[in-house]
Amino acid sequence: MIQISEIKKSYGKQLILDGISFEAQPGECVAVIGRNGCGKSTLMQILAGIEPPDSGELNYYHRNPRKDPKVFRELCGYVPQSNPLMEELSVRDNLKLFGANPAIVEDELLRPFELAPILNKPVGKLSGGMKRRVAIACAVHHIPSILFMDEPTTALDIYFKQSIHEWMRQYQKMGGILIMSTHEDAEISLCGTHVFIENGKATTNHIH
Ligand SMILES: Nc1ncnc2c1ncn2[C@@H]1O[C@H](COP(=O)(O)OP(=O)(O)OP(=O)(O)O)[C@@H](O)[C@H]1O
User: Fold this and answer.
1) 129-140 pLDDT, tens digit each
2) ipTM (interface predicted TM)
3) What pLDDT, in 10s, does the model give residues 31-79?
4) Is residue 149 part of a domain?
5) Burial of 199: CB neighbours in 10 Å, binned 0-12, 13-18, 19+
6) Coil, strand, or helix at residue 134?
7) Is 160 domain-assigned?
8) How far is the CA of 12 from the centre of ligand 1 (A)?
9) Ligand 1, atom 10: nearest CA belongs to which residue?
10) Based on the structure, what is the number of domains in the chain?
11) Which residues form the ABC transporter domain (predicted)?
C-alpha cells in the first residue's frame, strides 16, 4: 500500500501544495482532480520522484522512497503529462531505452496498444495519440506495483481511450495501485477514491 503524508510544495513564493495526505491499497484506483493549475502535475511529479517536496513523507509498501530512491525504480511506473520519448529514435529503441523488450508489443498485455505496426517508425513522425500510447507502454511494460499517470488519455481517440481504460481495470484486478490525475469523467468514475485539490489542500472521497 502507499501512504502520502502532509506533502508541501512551493515554487518561489507561490504555495502549491499545502499538506496533501491520502492512502491507497493494492487494487485501488485514485483520481487526483481539480481545476487547471491547482497542483495535480506537481503532486504526480513528487509521487514519482521527479520533483522533491519541501516537506512530507512517502511510504510505498513500507519503504521510504525519499531515503531510498531506488524504490521509485523498483516499484513505480510514471506517465508524465508531456511526452517523455526521444523523438529521433524509433518506437523500438524508445521501448529499449525504458528497459522493455520490443517483442512485448505482441504480448497480451500490450497488444491493445497496437504498437507492432509502428515499431520501426521514428517517434517524431507519430501523431500525438500514437506518442501517448508509446509513452504509456514504456511506463507499464514491467507491470509496476504502483503506477502514476498524469492525464493519461489526453490526445487519444475514443477507441484507444476505451482500450486504455480496459487495461486500467485489468491492472487493478492484478492488484496494481493506480494514481492518476485526470479531467475525464470516464476515468474519474473508474476510480474508487477521489482526491480533490483546491487551494493546496486535498479532500478525499471514497466512492466504492
Ligand atoms: N517548475 C515550475 N516552476 C514554477 N512554477 C511551476 C512549475 N511547475 C508548475 N508550476 C506552477 O504550479 C502551479 C500548479 O501547476 P500544475 O502543473 O501542477 O497544475 P495542474 O493542476 O496539473 O494543472 P492542469 O490541470 O492545467 O494540468 C501552476 O501555477 C504552475 O504555473
Assistant:
1) 999 999 999 999
2) 0.97
3) 999 999 999 999 999 999 999 999 999 999 999 999 999 999 999 999 9
4) yes
5) exposed
6) helix
7) yes
8) 12
9) 11
10) 1
11) 2-207
